[in-house]
Specification:
The complex is a heterodimer of chains A (286) and B (262). With 286 residues, chain A is an all-alpha fold. Chain A contains 11 helices and no strands. In chain A, 79% of the residues lie in helices and 0% in strands. Chain A starts with a helix and ends in a 12-residue tail after the last helix. Helix content of chain B is 37%, strand content 24%. Chain B has helices at 54-61, 99-108, 114-127, 143-155, 173-190, 201-207, 235-239, 241-261; strands at residues 13-24, 28-39, 43-47, 69-74, 84-87, 161-165, 193-198, 210-215, 220-226. In chain B, the strands form 2 sheets. A 6-stranded mixed β-sheet of chain B has the order 5-6-7-3-8-9, with helices on both faces. In chain B, helix 2 runs parallel beside helix 4 (143-155). The chains are: A mainly alpha (286), B alpha/beta (262). The interface between A and B is medium-sized, with 21 and 22 residues.
Chain lengths: 286, 262
């Protein structure tokens, strides 16, 4: 018997299973972008073929070429409209964050405040905003302020309710520890409740971003025509009255694009704030 | 090592509980007539079945609750924020803060900047063997390491008394033994007083020089044992006849406690 007989079998340099896993992961990464893009291209193509072959009149369904054409032609009208809607949405969201967080802090600092006012926050939320909008138009002189209020009402509730839950979700033992070390109210809020609430708040922010846009669109539908400057939703409504369906679709696409951008920004904010410590933002091996 | 500690019972007093009672709503007596004189350098274990009031006793000592009757007095004045360190059953760390920031907490709540207490934080982390993990987040650590951070946080202010509420109950046995050894070494280095809640006979005998055995319904002290074996206690102590004899004593007392409650 020689030494060579006892040598372990030649070891392959890579583990087959691991290599396969990495390959699949790589394919998934590429497919994540290419597949939805492909679906979009195919949908637009199908849309185009349906319109041209079926000879669908443009006032029923404009083809993608017409919409693209309108988008370019009417850009000088659509772009300012987008700014108007964008500004309304952004202001409403900022107010929702300020109001929602302030109210949530007040609620957690004082049980009495929560007991007294929380039911009304719920009533404000469950009453359909579209039913309140015409009233706002009557009572509030500035149409912009009325529209802002309308969007704010829709957007602020998820921030309020999520932040309230978050502020209360701090670990009880940590709370005891803060008591033992003689923490002040402010220290407890700053070092314990606020960081505990952050993931909840960011979840609320993601929802509120989308709702602020919806609120802005509703406000424009109901109030916007009264001379706030033309937003995208008012443009869309007006285009439908004029049977200008190319422009209507162009406006619709831009609104939807705004929604996507808002969602992406909120997701990015959330990821950046939580990536170091929160389970939701941590990639797991394997 | 600090100066040798005098034998049990001859040490300077630190805290006295006399005739302490705690009754919860619905006339549930959590603790009845508890008398305990804690002395400087003691390692006291509160040993007993669930519901015997051992955690209630800790909450009373840490002033999170107030006794229905009786008094708890610190010798040499009221307890300040500096006097007490606490370790819970869970590591109870702030997940959003690094290891060093977690250990900073007791100081931070006193308004001290990180720079001012950096050396203390580093020393505490060195004592628990985690100086290389200062900038790690809790989720990156194992269960045993998290518990070490928790212990470092409890002793960073060099408190007069450290309360531990079943700190190792959730850990595996190997980690638990290791932490038991380390805890004794730590205690001998910083010379603090410890009250340790456990329901493990073996742990209480290995760690402490005084064991207070408690019974449930109502929660009360039924016996106090002295574990008269010298520190430092090594791994060999775990397998010695002496250790077995003490375990037997504690175990008998615990059985008695169970029968009383039944």
């Amino acid at each position: 018997m020689t030494l060579a007989d006892n040598a372990p079998p030649a070891r392959p340099l890579v583990d087959e299973e691991e290599a396969a896993r990495l390959r699949t992961a790589r394919i998934h990464r590429i497919a994540k972008w290419t597949l939805p893009s492909l679906v979009m291209v195919l949908t637009i193509l199908a849309w185009h073929l349906y319109v041209t072959i079926g000879e669908v009149p443009h006032y029923i369904l404009p083809g993608p070429v017409l919409v693209a054409q309108k988008m370019v032609e009417d850009w000088s009208l659509l772009w300012p409209a987008m700014l108007v809607t964008g500004r309304l949405t952004l202001f409403a969201l900022l107010m929702a964050v300020a109001g929602g967080v302030a109210l949530a802090v007040a609620f957690t600092q004082s049980k009495w405040a929560e007991m007294s006012f929380f039911p009304y926050a719920v009533i404000l939320q469950v009453t359909p905003v579209i039913a309140i909008a015409p009233l706002l138009q009557i009572y509030v002189e500035s149409a912009f302020v009325a529209a802002l209020l309308c969007a704010w009402i829709v957007a602020f509730f998820p921030i309020l309710s999520n932040t309230t839950i978050g502020l209360k979700s701090a670990d009880h033992n940590l709370g005891d520890l803060f008591t033992i070390y003689g923490a002040t109210r402010w220290q407890r809020l700053r070092f314990l409740a606020a960081p505990s609430a952050l993931p909840f708040f960011l979840g609320g922010l993601k929802i509120a971003g989308g709702l602020a846009l919806i609120g802005a669109v509703v406000a424009e539908f109901v109030i916007g025509r009264a001379g706030t400057g033309l937003g995208l939703a008012s443009t869309l409504l007006e285009a439908s009255y004029r049977f200008n369906f190319g422009r209507l679709y162009a406006a619709l696409i831009l609104i939807s694009l705004m929604g996507i951008v808002i969602f992406a920004i909120m997701s990015l904010i959330s990821h950046l704030s939580l990536r170091k410590w929160h389970e939701s933002a941590i990639k797991r091996e394997g | 090592m600090t100066d040798p500690i005098p034998p049990v019972g001859e040490r300077p007093p630190l805290l006295n509980m006399s005739h302490v009672e705690k009754t919860f709503a619905g006339d549930v007596v959590a603790l009845r007539d508890m008398n305990l004189s804690v002395q400087e350098g003691d390692f006291i274990s509160l040993l007993g079945p669930s519901g015997c009031g051992k955690s209630t006793a800790l909450r009373l000592i840490s002033d999170l609750m107030h006794p229905t009757a009786g008094t708890i007095r610190w010798v040499g004045g009221q307890q300040g924020a500096d006097d007490l360190g606490v370790v819970f059953q869970e590591p109870t760390l702030m997940p959003w803060a690094t290891v060093a920031q977690n250990v900073w907490l007791p100081f931070r709540l006193q308004g001290k900047t990180y720079a001012a207490v950096k050396d203390d934080i580093l020393e505490a982390l060195k004592l628990v063997g985690l100086e290389r993990f200062q900038t790690s987040y809790p989720r990156e650590l194992s269960g045993g390491m998290k518990m070490r951070v928790s212990i470092a946080r409890a002793m960073v202010t060099k408190p007069r008394l450290i309360l531990m509420d079943e700190p190792f109950a959730a850990l595996d046995e190997i980690t638990r033994f290791k932490l038991n050894n380390d805890l004794l070494e730590l205690k001998s280095k910083i010379g603090c007083t410890v009250i340790f809640v456990t329901h493990s006979v073996f742990e209480s005998v290995f760690l402490s020089d005084r064991i207070v055995v408690m019974a449930a319904r109502p929660g009360r002290v039924i016996r106090e044992l002295t574990v008269d074996a010298p520190y430092p206690r090594s791994e060999e102590f775990r397998t010695s006849a002496e250790y077995a004899a003490f375990c037997r004593q504690a175990s008998d007392a615990l059985h008695e406690a169970m029968e009383l409650a039944a």
